[in-house]
Design goal:
This protein is of the alpha/beta class. Helix 11 links the parallel strand 10 and strand 11. Helix 11 runs parallel beside helix 12. The protein is elongated, with a radius of gyration of 21 Å. Bound molecules: S-adenosyl-L-homocysteine (SAH) and iron/sulfur cluster (SF4).
């Protein structure tokens, strides 16, 4: 899909063609312009050539069937992954990638081991959501939430991510509420500052994963460039400007960051108004092991008693490596 080409072609057509095209893409969710019966044949042909709507993907359904992963092949052959999480309460959350690979190389992350191939353009981000929107339409359902938690660092590709967010939110397009859209960052300070100033208020999540600079720098190289104090100061400013809650993601890595000393250190950073910690069971990708259930429970209790708001993220989808980057990693081997 290439919306810029679409607009170019339709500039020379009567105005109503554009609205028809928009309805076809976003409401009727067509995957081929030949399905748009109101368009003249020549136009359908032209659009199939410059703005094809087909999406090439391999689909893997998790055994428990509440999580579906698509490995999408882009025009240049690059592969990215997108996951649909179908929650018991009816929410249909699509987890999208923002880059092919990621340049930041966090130690625990499979995407990090890939390095960066390239940024995704906004069309490629939107296609990931469209892919699942089309599947869900056949089941009379729709995408309700989008999280930027797939491959890549969204704030290193800010403009494309934001352009995609606007389409996701647009009533003429996917019509997903801003509050149903979340962006997760490893702590890119200029990105958080920019987001604070946007009119559309989407949710912000910060990948924290450590309670001090020494450990965080070992796990996440980006911490050397943007250390904890600077990230948290920027988050505080974001909260002042937006009044919105911020979620801190904390992966539970056995014997690495999951002791009660870590919980104590973490609680001193996180016991704050509008801060929320999300404890994430680690999806093993090689180097680290996940913390066991009991350790996570006592870690959680410690934080709660220290006045920290805590939640625990979905654990399902692990049997298809739903967390981050693993499938593409296997495919590239
Ligand atoms: N680059 C952004 C967004 C993509 S990663 C970021 O780092 O926030 C989305 C989330 O998945 C991050 O919190 C990341 O730390 C987490 N993650 C990475 N590898 C994981 C794994 N193996 N198991 C569980 N979560 C993982
Ligand atoms: Fe990149 Fe996020 Fe993975 Fe770190 S955790 S390597 S920032 S995708």
């Amino acid at each position: 899909m290439n919306l810029d080409n679409l607009y170019k072609v339709l500039k020379d057509e009567p105005k109503f063609r554009l609205s028809q095209a928009q309805v076809a893409i976003w409401q009727n969710l067509v995957s081929d312009w030949s399905q748009v019966t109101t368009f003249p044949a020549a136009l359908k042909e032209k659009l199939n050539e410059v703005c094809p709507l087909q999406i090439e993907a391999d689909v893997h359904v998790a055994k428990k069937e509440n999580s579906t992963k698509a490995l999408i092949t882009l025009e240049d052959g690059a592969k990215i992954e997108t996951v649909l999480l179908s929650h018991a309460d009816g929410r249909q959350t699509v987890c999208v990638s923002s880059q092919v690979g990621c340049p930041l190389g966090c130690k625990f992350c499979a995407t990090g081991t890939l390095g960066l191939t390239r940024d995704l353009n906004y069309n490629e981000i939107l296609m990931q959501v469209l892919f699942f929107a089309r599947i869900l339409k056949k089941e009379n359902s729709r995408v309700s939430n989008v999280v930027f938690m797939g491959m890549g660092e969204p704030f290193l590709n800010y403009d494309n991510v934001w352009k995609a967010v606007k389409y996701l939110n647009d009533k003429q397009a996917l019509n997903i509420g801003a509050r149903k859209i979340s962006i997760s960052t490893s702590g890119i300070v200029p990105g958080i500052e920019k987001l604070a100033k946007e009119k559309l208020q989407v949710n912000l999540a910060i990948s924290l994963h450590a309670s001090n600079d020494k450990l965080r720098s070992e796990l996440m190289r980006i911490n050397k460039r943007f250390p904890l104090a600077q990230v948290l100061k920027t988050v505080d400013d974001y909260i002042k400007q937006t009044g919105r809650k911020v979620m801190f993601e904390y992966l539970m890595l056995r014997g690495v960051n999951d002791s009660l000393q870590h919980a104590e250190e973490l609680s001193r950073l996180m016991a704050k108004h509008l801060y929320m910690v999300n404890l994430i069971p680690y999806n093993p990708t090689g180097v680290f092991k996940p913390s066991d259930r009991r350790t996570i429970d006592s870690f959680r209790r410690y934080l709660e008693q220290a006045g920290v708001e805590v939640s625990q993220r979905f654990t399902y989808g692990q049997d298809i490596d739903a967390a981050c980057g693993q499938l593409a990693n296997k495919a590239s081997k």
